[in-house]
What we know:
Structural class: alpha+beta
Strand content: 15-25%
Radius of gyration: 26 Å
Distance between the termini: 56 Å
Number of strands: 17
Largest sheet: 5 strands, mixed
Shape: globular
Amino acid sequence: MAKRRKNGLYPEISAELSALMRTGWADTERHDLQLAEQAPHATRRRAALSARFPGERLVIPSGNLKVRSNDDTYPFRPYSGYVHMAGDQVRDGALVLEPRADGGHDAYCYQLPRDSRDDDEFWTGAHAELWTGRRRSLAESERVLGLPCRDVRTAAADLAAASGAPTRIVRGIDPSLEAAVTTDAGRDAELEEALSDLRLVKDAWELGELRKAVDSTVRGFTDVVAELSRAIASSERWIEGTFFRRARLEGNAVGYGSICAAGEHATIMHWTDNDGPVRPGDLLLLDAGVETHSLYTADVTRTLPISGTFTPLQREIYDAVYEAQEAGMAAVKPGAQYRDFHEAAQRHLTARLVEWGFIEGPVDRAYELGLQRRFTMAGTGHMLGLDVHDCAQARTEDYVDGVLEPGMCLTVEPGLYFQADDLTVPKAWRGIGVRIEDDLVVTDDGHENLSAALPRAADEVEAWMARFSG
Length: 470
C-alpha cells in the first residue's frame, strides 16, 4: 500500500475507484527491443572483474532515489561501477556475479519490475509509473542487457539467505542491500578499487561516447560565446543556462556543476554559484562538460576575454598557462609516467612565477617546495570517463604512480589564480584567473586531443570570438 500524503486532498480510495483504475489497460509489453550496443562490452568487463575474484559473490548496486524536498527527488544518477559493468542505468537495481565451481561467475541483474495493474500501487505510489513514467519489464531488460533479470524486491532476502561463498558489496550505494549481507569493509573496498581500475583504459565504444560528449561541449561553448552580450546584460546565470540547454538537448545533462566564473570569480577553483556580473574588460573562465545519454562526460575549460580581446596583462598570464599546457600535453604518450604531464606544466608555471618575482627561486627549489601552488592551486589533470574525475578509487600504483597506456583518457588543465585579496602580487594582477583544459586520449604513438576544435592560443581565441560573439 502506498504511503498516503499527510495533507493530500484524497484521503480515501473507494472500492469503486480502485476497481475502475485496475481495468481497461492495454498490454504494452515491448517485443521489438534489441540487445544494447554497450552489452557486449559490458560482458567483457564482467569477465575481467570475475577473473579478479574467483569463488566470491560480488554485489554492485545501482543506487536509490534521494529525497530533495518532501515528495520530490533529486534526478537519479546510478553508481558508475554499475553502469560500466551492467550497461544499464536503472534505479533500485543491482548486478550480482554468482561464483561457479570452475572459478568463473554467472551474472544477473536485480531490477524493479513494472507496476502490476492488480493493486493500487501503479497509480498511487510515490514513484508509480503513472507518475514518473514507464519502466522496462524484467523480460524487456533481459533482451536489452543480455542478462537474466530478477525482481529486486526479493534481493535483500535472497542475499541474506545466500551461502557457500564469501560476499563483497560496494558500500554506500544501497543501504538495504548492504544491511542484508555480512562482509568486511576492507574486502569491499577492494571490489570498489577493482571497479575503478577496470575503467582506466577505455574500450572503443567508450571512446566513441567521449567523442560525442566533447563534440557537444564544443557546440555548448560556441553557444555561450554567441550569447555573451545577453550574459553581460544579466549575469553568469545566463551562461550557465545557455550551456545547460545544449547539454539537455544533445545529452543527458551536464557532467558536473558548470563553472561560469567571470572577473574575480575565475580565481575560485569550483565556483558554481554563477550569480555574478559579466563585465566587459574582465575574463570569463568557463569549465563545463556535456554528459551523454550513456553518462560519459567531457570536461573542458576555456578562459575568454569578455570584450573579445585580451588586455596586455591578461594575455601575458594567458600565454603562460597556454605554454604550460603545451608542455603538459607533449608529455602525454604511452609509456610515460602519469605524473609527467603534471610536472611538465607545473615546472613551466613555476619558472614564470619566479621570473615575475612572485615566488623565490631558483626554479628547481621552488618546485621542490611546492611554492607555485599558492597560485596554481590544484593538480594539472585527472582521468575522465563515466565520472568527471573517473577511476577515483583505483589503486595508486595504477593511477597517479602508474604508466600511461593507449585508451586512457585524461584532462590537462594548468591554471594560474591571483586572488583578489592577495597582497603579494601587484594590484593589477589581483582577481585574474586563467585555466585552459582539454580532454586527451592516449594513442599508440602519442595522444589525440578530443577537444581540439575549440581554439586555445590567444590569437585563435580572439578570432573565434569575433566570428561567433553576439
